[in-house]
Amino acid sequence: MKQPNWKSLVEIVGISALVASLIFVGLEMRQAREIAMSDGALANAANEIERHLAISKNSDIWLKGNAGAELSESEMLQFQGLVQIVDAAEFMEIARLRRVGADDIADSLTADFSVFLYENPGARRIWTDIIQSRKNYRSLLAPDKEIIDDVFADTVISHLTKLDQLQE
Questions:
Q1: Category of 120 on φ-ψ map: left (φ > 0), alpha (ψ -120 to 50) or beta
Q2: CA distance 55 to 49
Q3: Max alpha carbon distance in the chain (Å)?
Q4: For the segment 31-40, what is each residue's pLDDT rounded down to a tens digit?
Q5: Phi, psi for 149 (deg, rounded to 5)
Q6: What number of other Cβ atoms are within 10 A of residue 111's Cβ?
Q7: What pLDDT is stored for residue 57 in this prediction?
């Protein structure tokens, strides 16, 4: 009777355990990504509700600002604040999606934000002014740096240009 080759058997068991642990780690990573995506989507939904509430609470200013009506100084500050809230929330969600590799969803949200600005011309004017101001300061302070916010802004501006061309 032949004795089993214990060394070979132990090696096979060890390799099997290593493969199983790698599969387990892979599944854990996938699950962690899905949890992060779900948590982010939930946080984004809560932020979107807050943005809508802020606009609803200041609907008179929002409507006047988008219609191009004259705004008092305090109304203009509120209108600018509303636009900045929307911009910051959209940018942060899109940046989060890009970090986790969900570029297709990020692209859709960038397009949606572009449509939002297109449909709200006063918000678009304020947003464009804010972006131009940021770019001017950045060109002075960090002239050789590519900044992700500029890529986002350039993409939105490109989308807006396409939408404008469709209207012509």
A1: beta
A2: 10
A3: 100
A4: 888 887 788 7
A5: -60, -35
A6: 15
A7: 93
